[in-house]
Amino acid sequence: MSKQNPRRRSPRAIGPAVLGAVCAGGAVAWVLGAVLSLLPTPPETGASAAGSLDTVSESVQEDPEAPTAELQVRLTTGERAYIQNITCTGDASADPGVCADLALVQAETAESDGIGLFDEVPEDAVCEEDHDYGPGQAHVAGEWGGEEIDTEVTRADSCEEVRWQRLRPLMDAVADAAP
Asked: Where is the segment annotated Disordered (predicted)?
């Protein structure tokens, strides 16, 4: 006796076919989405374009306010020692460039991680101590933006090196001003 309808598939054969079709469809959709995301978007017109311009202009950050400061910096870099007084009057056009540079660093660090320009390393900070970051020690004293400053900065460990780099405009200005 012969089988009736010998070409009839078992239910087990349908599952892999459906799964394969779903996977192939997902792959095609992903490729299409990736290609479309790489295409340039047409410029906006009308009211929505004006709204975009307003949003962009609001997000442009202005230069930070010019600081007032009276700082004395004593810097030692291995073979040389420097002492310099830095005065920032709050007039960006008359102050030395280091005042604007420090104000910019202060604004960036306060915005990104809430650290002040002259803040000390927290006691619970984890610092790498087996790396030599080079010679350098500085003592900064005076006033910055109405706040009293009296701090030592070294390059003894990774945390102090971060402070050194944060104050790099000040260190460079002192070293560059030397005869």
From this structure: 44-68
Number of H helices, E strands in the chain: 5, 4
Those residues with Cβ within 8 angstroms of residue 96's Cβ, 6 or more apart along the chain or in another chain? 86, 88, 173
Q: What is the pTM of this model?
A: 0.61
Query: Measured between alpha carbons, how far is 159 from 137 in angstroms, rounded to an integer?
Result: 14
- The topology (CATH level 3) of 68-177 is Subtilisin Inhibitor (3.30.350)
Is the pLDDT confidence value at 56 over 70?
A: no
Rg, C-alpha atoms of the chain: 31
Pairing of strands 68-76, 81-89: antiparallel
CA distance 151 to 165: 15
